[in-house]
Each structure stands twice: as C-alpha cells, then as structure tokens.
Amino acid sequence: xxxxxxAPPLPAAPAAEKLALAGVAAGLLxxxxxxxxxxxxxxxxxxxxxxxxxxxxxxxxxxxxxxxRPAGVQQHNLWRRASTSRGAVAWVTSLVLxxxxxxxxxxxxxxxxxxFGVLNNLVHALDAFSxxxxxxxxxxWFLYGTFYTLAVLLMGGRALWKYRHSRYQVIRTVSVMFxxxxxxxxxxxxxxxxxQPEFYFNYFWPLKYDYLFPGTVTSLLQSGGLGxxxxxxxxxMSLLATPVLTYFFGKRWYCSWxxxxxxxxxxxxxPYRQLSDKSRAAWRWEVRLIYPILAIIVALTAxxxxxxxxxxxxxxxxxxxxxxxxxxxxxSVFSGVIGVGFYPILGNRVWCxxxxxxxxxxxxxxxxxxxxxxxTNGGQCISCGNCSNVCEMGIDVKQYAQRGEPIxxxxxxxxxxxxxxxxxxxLNLENGPRTGRYQASPxxxxxxxxxxx
Length: 453
Known about the structure:
Elements: H1 15-36, H2 40-67, H3 88-106, H4 120-125, H5 127-134, H6 140-162, H7 167-193, H8 214-221, H9 225-249, H10 252-255, H11 260-267, H12 280-309, H13 318-338, H14 343-346, H15 350-354, H16 357-369, E1 372-376, H17 386-390, H18 397-403, H19 417-421, E2 427-431, H20 442-452
C-alpha cells in the first residue's frame, strides 16, 4: 500500500543535463585509462582528454542546471538525493576521495628512479606541462596541485552560476579562484622555473606551520634577497597583518577569500555544506580539538626555536620527530584524508572547523578583538531555517535570528551564505564599531518593553 503522504519522485534531469553529466562520467573513465595505460604517449592523451571532458561537462552542466532557474539560493530535494544526504553516492564519493589521499600521501613517493607508485602514469603524463611551468619533471605534488586547482576552478564556475544573483558571493568566489590559481599554483611554479625556493604566498603560520620553523627560515635566508623577503612576508603576515586584518574584517578576509583549503571547501565542497553537525556535542568536540591543536603548534614552534638557540642540543632528535608526527597526524591525516575525503559525509569544513590552527587563531581574534559581526533583525525572521541549513560551520543561525541577536562566533568564516539564503533580508554582514557588538536588535528590545509594559 502506498503511504498517504509519500514523497513525490525526484524530478528527472533534462536530456541536455544528462548529456553534460555523461561527459563528466566519460572524463572519469578516461582518467582511469590514463592511470592504467603503460604507454606514456597514449597515457598523456588520455589524461588531457579526461581533463577536457571533465571541464566541458562540469561547466556545461552548471550552466544548464542553474542558468535555467530563477536567481536565488534553492535547496530543493537536498535531503532526498543520495549524493547530498549521506546516501550511497555520497559514501562512494567519500571512499574514492579518501583512497586518493591515502595513495597520494603514502603510496606515490619517488622511489629514486622517477617512479611514483600507483600514480606513476598520471604523474608522468604531466611532465611536459611541469617542464613548461617549473623547468622540471612532474612529481606527485604537482599532480595533486593540478587536480586541486582544477577542482577549485571548475566548481568555482558552478558556484558562480549558482550564486550569480549575489554580488558578494560572486566576488568572493572569484577571489578564491584567483588566489588558488595565481598564488598557490602558478607563482610557486614560476619561482621554481627561475631556481628560487618554492613558496606559497597565500599560506601563513600556523596553517603552513613550517614557514616559521628555524630550519625553513634558515634555508630561505641562505637563498638570497628573495628568500629574505619570503621570511619577512611570512612573519609579518602571520604576526602583524593577520591581527590587523582580522580586527577590521573578521576571519572571512582569509578563510573565505584567500585560503586554498577554504577555497576548495567553498567550491568543490559547496554541495555538502548542509551536512555540518549543528548539535552542541559537535560544538564541544570543536572546542576540544581545534584549540589544543593550535596550542601544540605554538609550543612546537617555540621549542624548535629554543632548540635552535641552544645549538640543537636542547631536544636532540625529539624536535624533528615531533614536527614529523604533527605533519603526519594533522597536516596529512586530518587536513587531507579526513578534511577533504569526508566532505560528502561530514560537510565541507571538517578541517576548518575541528583541526585548522589558523582558523583557531583567527577565531580567537574575531571573537574577542574584531569589529566583524552578523547582525540580525528578529522581527523579520520567519523561521524558515534556510540560514542554518547552509551554514557550513555548524552554527544554528536561525536561533540567533529568531532572538534578534548578533552572531559573534569564533567559528564563523563569514562566507555570507546565511545572509544570501535568507528570503527576508534578516542577516547582514557588518564591520561596525566594537561597541554594541553583543547587543540584540533594537526592534527586539522595543517589543520586549511593550510586552513587559
């Protein structure tokens, strides 16, 4: 017997969208063929064909899917689709992503003879591109950087179609695409082409934790004037510019506009933002994890400098071992395997919310010293829940909106999707004066006075 209130079947995709998705599927198949084909020339053609199909299919589907809809954030059937509600498709996607990171980190290292394990064919298929950009053959990290950047650009194109009605979202998406392509991919490659140290100008300590380690600093200082500038840039951005910028703009200036991790989350991870856990238990785990991780990297950095100051006698090998274990547990397992691999299951900001020391550092500044807040007008809230549904950081925004309270949370990355998704204009991102940051809406106070009177 059919239930009286059975949900209607999901709407079928138009034929043009199915054709675009078929192109994406063909691209994934060509990628597998490039991985398996032992012939270098044929493998290279398979890879470039795969990238072309993935690019064309993704952009065509985005234009067809979102271009035909009215502008605005639409969340129809998100919790009914297997790909966006922890269904079978989501689990398979998570398994593939997790497997890729495991292979990348631990089964694709150079064996000393130019062989990169399981990913060898894909790596060497990019040799010509790598030589043109970096004047050296490709390695597993160049392959990863290429895939990572392509994901940000393609899914950034999708985000531009989806949020084309919001000027803030369009500019923010273009920003993360620009910084990933220019500062995290092309510029480090060009530096290597001219035999300079590889350096990522959009990553800072404590996220890029080794940039203020004594070994890295010493190596850069020995590289000449550009290396000295890199040390200066890293130190100033981490210790001076970050507090100043966060005071005026909150952590959004970095987490939602510049950071490559945030860029991937906002683009490739956008379909999964509604999966973030809004429970108090999740918030307690957030506090238990992210601040101790920040404390660990601060303490480790200080100890390594003390070790360096004593002529490398204070810690012996313990300092290097500690740095390696931090890189393994936090830099690889947490940020990569879990942080990206679990997008389809836990949401797109698992790393940023629970593990990123930069997010913890910026969050403390934002909560206690920043002018940034999200103001709310409770008198206009209709309790639709759209704002909470799109919050990738697990903040139950609706509860603040209903009470007319400003949102001043250390975890908020200022992506602005809560404001973009609100149908009544209840939420506004502001960089106002620090006075009054914690005051509720005047309208709420007036209503309360009338009730009490």
